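Work Package 3 committed the consortium to producing structural models of liganded targets before the mid-term review. Because experimental data for this complex are still outstanding, the team generated a predictive model from sequence and the ligand definition alone, so that downstream docking and mutagenesis planning could proceed in parallel. The input record is reproduced below exactly as it was submitted to the modelling pipeline, together with the SMILES string for adenosine-5'-diphosphate.
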Amino acid sequence: MGKFITVHSFKGGTGKSFLAVNLATLYAMQGKKVALLDLDFRAPTLHVVFEPMFLKCWINNVLDGSINVKECMEDCSDRIDNKGKLFVSFADFSTEAIREMVSKGKKWEIEALQRLLQMRRDLLDNLNFDIVLADTSPGIQYLAINAVVAADVALVVSTLDDSDVTGTVRMIQELYDVFEKKTAIIVNKAIGYGTMNDGEKTKILNGLHEKYKETVIGVLPCFCEVGAMKRASVFVLKEPKHPFTKMIEKIATKLDAL
Ligand SMILES: Nc1ncnc2c1ncn2[C@@H]1O[C@H](COP(=O)(O)OP(=O)(O)O)[C@@H](O)[C@H]1O
Ligand SMILES: [Mg+2]
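The resulting structure, written out as tokens with the ligand in place, is given here.
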């Protein structure tokens, strides 16, 4: 039975899309059948990375109920030299589509949740994906929280910025815990973490909320190479031996075990 992992955060720019792309690629390279979904309808990103060529529809159409997810996936396995199976579903990045998605009402959101749950069943039970990774918008609006509700594991990405940490902890307590969601946290862009000694690293983690600390499955330092890299290249593919790739591999293993 496969696993649906939603990558979410309280604030924007924490590295969700970057991590979703790299984790999906890593899993596919390990031979898994992976689906990567762009559920960030406010700021779609995956089309910039994978440059789809044969698109017939968007994941927006799946949530509207007009089409099955199977029709809206592009086989991107060739981008990873066919090392495994990687299918990607893209969000409509036109200005009209983004405006439309952010102005949807509660009734649509509830229907969209049902369709998201159906999509989950289609991907895991009918199409036998091993891993589904969903990239989402930051924050607590319904669309993002729906994706968390549909997930087996909610992977939350936070920086060490104190407003991010405080918001993340509140979001987990007030929302995730209500759904009894299995939660894992990645602290990303931890400036200076790479060169800290163990004592300093422990001090940073001890400074976090007790609850927050327990579920941290990785702390990733801020790497200039990552920030400077063009979107269209996938870090773990381009830099397979880089220490950052090794850290993402460890995170993938921990997520697997959850
Ligand atoms: N550990 C890191 N070190 C340096 N830059 C990073 C790191 N993680 C992500 N980035 C960069 O930060 C920017 C924002 O990341 P992104 O994945 O788009 O965030 P989000 O999807 O959460 O808004 C991107 O340019 C990305 O390459
Ligand atoms: Mg993003």
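Reviewers should note the following from the model. The chain is about 45% helix and 20% strand. These observations will guide the Year 2 experiments.
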